[in-house]
Amino acid sequence: MTLDINTLLVVTVANIVTLALVSPAVMGLRLGPAARAARWSLAMHAASWICMIASNFWPETWLDRLLSTLAVGGFAATHWLLFRALSNWLGPRRFESAVTALTLLAPAGYVLLFGDYAWRVGWANFLLAAQLALLALACFDPKTTLRGNWRLVVAFGMVSMAILTLGRGALGAFTDLYPSFLAPHPWNVAAMLMTNLLPLMVNFAMLGGWHEEAETALHRQAVTDTLTALLNRRGWVEVGQPLVANANRLDQPMALLMIDIDHFKKINDTHGHEAGDRALRAIGKLLLKNRRANDLAARIGGEEFCLLLPGSSVESAPTIDQRLREELPAIGAGLGFPISFSSGLALRQPGETLESMMIRADKALYAAKEGGRDRLELAAT
Fold first, then answer.
1. What sign for the dihedral angle of Cα 267, 271, 274, 275?
2. What's the CA gap between 306 and 137, in Å, rounded?
3. Residues 6+ apart with CB under 8 A from 149
4. pLDDT top residue among 223 and 197
5. 3-state DSSP assignment of residue 344
6. How far apart are CA 72 and CA 63, in angstroms?
7. CA–CA separation, 172 and 360 (whole Å)
8. What is the DSSP-derived secondary structure letter of residue 231?
C-alpha cells in the first residue's frame, strides 16, 4: 500500500484544525500565559498549513509567494509561541533571543529568496529545524516546580520534527528529488506522516503541562493564606516538617520564632475589622520582606505568625526579632495606630520535631505576654 501525499496533507490539516477548534472547549477560556501561548500556537499552526495548501493552487505566482511566506512565518511563529509556553511553565529558557531571531529571519529570507527554489526551501527548512532543536533543549533543566514527563514527550517530538525538516531542507537545497511541497519522495511522505502523528503527541503533552500547572496552582492556593500571602498552617507543616527533619539529620542549628500581635482584639474593636486585616497584611509583608531565602514564614491562625529560621543560633535569632521590631513604628504610622507584637523563640533540640518546637515557642510567647507584651522570650531547653 502506497501513501498518497495529498491525502496525508489533507488529514494533517484536518487533525491540526480540529485540535485548534477543540482546545478552547477542553482548556476553557481563563488560562495562564503558558497555556494561552500553547493554545495560540495550535491556531497559528492550523492557519499556516491552510496557507501552505492554498499556495499550491497558484504555483510560482505572487499569490504563491505571499501565501507560502505567510505559511513559513506562521510555522516559525508557532515554534516561538511554544517556546513562550515552555518559558512560562519551566522558567527562563536559554536561547530565547535566538528563537526570536529565527522567527523573523525564516519568512524574511524565504520571501527574498523566493525566485530560487533551492535557496528558499533550504533556508526555510534549515531555520525551522534550528528552532525545533532549540525547543527540544528548552524542555530540560526546569527552574520551577513543573517537572513532569510531558517535557520529555515534547522534546522527543521536537527532535523528530527537526530531523525530518532538516531532511526536507537538504533534499530541496541540494538535490532534484524534492521539486515541490507535494513531491512523493519517501522522505517527504515520512515527514508528512509524522506531521500527522507528532503534533497530536506534542499537543497532548502540552496539555500535560497545563494540567501540572493547574495542579500546582491549586496546591499553592491550598497552602497559602489569602490575606497575607504567607503560608497557612497546612503549608507551614507541609514544608516545615522536612526542614526540621533535615536539620536533625545534619545536626544543624535552627530556630523557630512565634509572633502574636499585641491587643489585636482591641484593634478590631477600636478601629474596625478592616483595620485589623490591614494590620495582619502589614505584619505578613514585614515577615516576607525580612526573611532570608531559606526562612519559612507563615500565618498559623488568627493574629499568630511563625518564622522557621534554618542556621540560626541563640546569638543570631534574637537579632532577627529585633530587626522586625525596628520597623514597627513606621508600620504603625502607615496604619494610623501603633502596633507591637510579643514573640517566643525556640532553638532546635536534638531529635526535636516541628510540633515540639512550636509548643516550646508558644509557651515562651505566653511568658512574653505575661511579662508585659512587646518583648521576646526565649523558650526553655
1. negative
2. 41
3. 208
4. 223
5. strand
6. 14
7. 76
8. B
- Reading phi first (left if > 0) and then psi (alpha if -120 to 50, else beta), residue 375 is in beta
Residue with cell 485589623: 276
Please, what is the end-to-end C-alpha distance for the chain in angstroms? 82
The structural architecture, per CATH, of the domain 233-378 is 2-Layer Sandwich (3.30)
**pTM for the full predicted model:** 0.74
H runs (alpha helix) in 91-185: 96-112, 117-138, 150-174
* Cell 529570507, residue located: 109
Handedness of CA 127, 131, 137, 143 (dihedral sign): positive
Quick: pLDDT tens for 157-168.
999 999 999 998
- Domain borders along the chain are 5-222, 233-378
Q: How far apart are CA 248 and CA 254, in angstroms?
A: 9
The pLDDT of residue 4: 67
Tens digits of residue pLDDT in 275-325? 999 999 999 999 999 998 899 999 999 999 999 999 998 999 999 999 999
Closest CA to 291 of 321, 326, 313: 321
**C-beta of residue 341 within 8 angstroms of C-beta of residue 260:** yes
One-letter amino acid for residue 174 of the chain: F
Q: Between these two residues, 208 and 23, which has the higher pLDDT value?
A: 208
Q: Whole-angstrom Cα distance, residue 6 to residue 284?
A: 63
C-alpha 57/C-alpha 352 separation (Å) is: 77
Query: Cβ distance 262 to 341 under 8 Å?
Result: yes
Taken in order 171, 175, 176, 180, the sign of the CA dihedral is: positive
What cell numbers appear for 349 in the block? 533540640
3-state secondary structure of 77: helix
- The CA-based angle 126-132-134, given to 5 degrees, is 105
Phi, psi of 257 (to 5 degrees): -110, 120
